[in-house]
Amino acid sequence: MSTNYANKLHSLQARRTGGASLISKHMTMDGRVYADSVSVGDSIGIESYQVRAGNKSATRFALGAMQEVEKRFTDAALAEADRVKRYLQGKLRSRLKAEFELQGSVPMNLHIEGISDVDLLCLRTDYRTYSPKGESAKAGKYRSWPAELEGVEPEDWLFELRNDVQRHLVACYGEKNDVNIESNKSIGLSGPSFAVKVDVVPAHWYHGVEYQRSKDKNDRGVSIYVLNEHKTVTNYPFRYMREVKSVDHQSNGGIKASIRLLKNLRADSDAKGNMRFLSSYDIAALICRLDPQQLALDEGSELRVMARLEQGLEALCYDESALMKLRTPDDTRCIIDKKEKTAEIKILIQELKGLNEMVAKENSDLYARKSRFAQDVGEILISTRIPLI
Q1: Which residue, 36, 65, 72, 315, is most buried by CB atoms nearer than 10 A?
Q2: Which residues of 41-67 are buried (b: 16+ CB within 10 A; e: fewer)?
Q3: Residue 57: which residues within 8 A CB-CB, separation 6 or more?
Q4: What pLDDT is recorded for position 42?
């Protein structure tokens, strides 16, 4: 584990400002400019974390790793997804009715890069599936399909949607941009006219038991087409987003700050090549199982959150059998569904412990000098406040 936080701080800054090359004019798919935007390449501003902690590199890294990516980068990424949506809305055949939703880290403000991929769900709305065990299904509220749809499987319906979306995107962007049509679950758009990569994900709605009971849009499932297996897989991205937002609200932003911190620690870890199984989704899900009150973020109290995060994660890992039973926020699976993930969580905890110790040294002369009168790391972090600017 590297303790050179000056280098890690440089890496963090580069990651956060990677969007400084974003284009200042967005082009429509036919090449016409439809809107101007402020060129973020004109100037790279100094973020608050870079000055709040002075020359304390570990503390600066910690504050920056917890902070949201600048809004201008997030807005630019969302704008890219929006113009792809506008184009497809105008080009899809009238009988292939579709609507669009965002999923993933960008709309949740959990991304840690200035240039972050955006997932754009393209949902076919003239076709959906449902659970026969739901109360609406049992009450006969789902009408039979028209005769022409009898025998049509969900994967066939989505294969048609994918082909149509792909045809339009390749026709427009095939020569001047990369259109990745090989990915199993999405069509990837990148290249010089895109500020960020946009992944278009063909899918349809799935009405499960919970949605039929609640009628809450966030409980609707999404069935995504898997190209190489010609099948669909169902997940619940909006339920996940709702649950993360709810627990983060209880922590006054501490949950999301903790998620970003661990994602940044993983990105800069010397051992990141050994962390192949634990996903960003898993990291977020795990932190959402901690006590939000313990991670409550008050003004200038980020260091306190770091201490409580270390304590909470160690407590979770103390009982490995209980850890293996923890469920994701959307309740679709266990978070730790592979034993290899346990070892990777422990690597991240060690990264966090190392950071916490370095931050304690920077903020306590007694601890740095190993004085017998020094507080321990947790006490230092809990009692130290870094004023806002």
Answers
A1: 65
A2: eeeeeebebeebbeebbbbbbbbbbbb
A3: 5, 6, 8, 9, 362
A4: 44
pLDDT at 274: 83
SS3 224: strand
Task: Report whether 291 contacts 305 (CB < 8 A).
Answer: no
What pLDDT does residue 25 have?
A: 42
pLDDT score at 37? 39
What is the distance between the alpha carbons of residues 386 and 190, in angstroms, rounded to a whole number?
A: 40
Length of the chain: 389
**Which two tokens mark 378?**
């947790």
pLDDT below 50 — which residues of the chain?
19, 23-43
DSSP class per residue in 278-304: --HHHHHHHHTTS-TTTT---TT-HHH
Q: List, as one string, the DSSP characters of 92-140.
A: S-TTS-EEEEEESHHHHT----SS--EEEEEEEEEEEEE-TTSHHHHTT
Find, among 138, 32, 152, the residue nearest to 83 by Cα: 32
- pTM, whole model, 2 decimals? 0.92
Packing angle, helices 340-363 and 57-66, rounded to 10: 130
